[in-house]
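re: ur msg from earlier - yeah i can do the adenosine monophosphate complex, just paste it... oh wait u already did. ok heres what im feeding in:
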Amino acid sequence: MYWEQEIETMPREKIVEMQLARLKESVKRASVSPFYAQQFKETGFDPNDIGSLEDIEHIPLTTKDDLREHWPYGFLATSRDELVRMHSSSGTTGRATVIFHTAHDIDEWANIATRSMYMTGMRRSDVFQNMMTYGLFTGGLGLHYGAERLGALTIPAGAGNSRRQIQLMRDFGTTFIHIIPSYALHLYTVFEELGMDPRKDTNLKAAFLGAEPHSERTRKRVEELYGIKAFNSYGLSEMNGPGIAFECPYQRGMHLWEDNYIVEIIDPHTGKPVPDGEEGELVLTTLLREGMPILRYRTKDITRIIPGPCECGRGHRRIERITGRTDDMLIIKGVNMYPIQIEKKLMEIPGVGTNYLILLEREGYNDHMTVKAEVEKEFFSGNLKQLETLRRRITEELKSEILITPRVELVEPGSLPTTEGKAVRVIDNRED
Ligand code: AMP
Ligand code: ZN
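and the outut:
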């Protein structure tokens, strides 16, 4: 049941003790990097001042801009000869950030990746098809090494090429897949085109859904369409990649591996910690990284700590499904909302398909939001009355969720763009 029983079931006091010892080491290692050396000097922070875990608050927060401004080597805490790998964040805005790893870093990362997958029930006898991009993006290599260490037959399929993915699944009896949730929904439509049903025509048991926000309803959809269990997998390249936080079989939040990271939730406006259980921005500190330790990193991801123990017996605290990012909040006609709210509603409504797009435009001084959603083919044949009824229903339901009335356009399956990587859900054509 556990990959590393002792560490996974460690009582809270023991974890805290371990974290404190590791934090002291991590801060010392970080202090030799050009960035932290300078920052500690400027703020007067002394690594020897860490006496308890609470003292972490004396360390300034680190942001993505810090990583960008000290690109590429400003955070290095070892010599370049020690490095064996680099990765990069997806970098949809501005310059991407790069992260360097030593062999030991890769080893520790593979370890938590293995632990995460084992936790969901994956075993040596399983066949693991990894449908994430291999390359600078961490999705591919991140779980790859963990799966091999676990001993599962690993198919490094990479992203895209849906028909080949399906062929591989069928030829090699794939049981576990690692896939972006929007792509999982799209892939189902390719099964349909081929006249196949993944529930009958594959051996799939489970999927790891990661790399982009998705609602509980989307998870359920993937589970129903494929007849499998879908586990939420959270990661970001600055902290390694996938394997940082993962769902256990109880599927109530993701265990964040606290022997590797310190978790804090802060109020994104004040930067101060919020009480356990309250929502805020996730802040993470690496405890074992050698090549590039990062202290108190503002992930911009919004979540909360789920209070109380998990029935699975693991002592590592759980974070809630990510509900948005501090930088993907949309303000439309003065109303704040997150794209995930729209997804959540859409996926609840029968007849709505697997792809949607939010379009923002400015006309005169007014913002307009159009939600384009694919709906099932039947709505377009014969009487279009049903289509109009569905359109009205979607408009009403969205209005009740986001408090403004969007224009809703319903389109046929397959007409909205798809990507191999993280889905682009919002197109904002408003000028600043
Ligand atoms: P990257 O560093 O390019 O891999 O991007 C990391 C970001 O992807 C995170 O900061 C999150 O915003 C997002 N992300 C990754 N996994 C998940 C997940 N399971 N749920 C929601 N968002 C996720
Ligand atoms: Zn659990």
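cool cool. The pocket of adenosine monophosphate (ligand 1) is lined by residues 89-90, 138, 210-213, 232-237, 299, 301, 322, 325 (CB under 6 Å). ping me if u need the other ligands too
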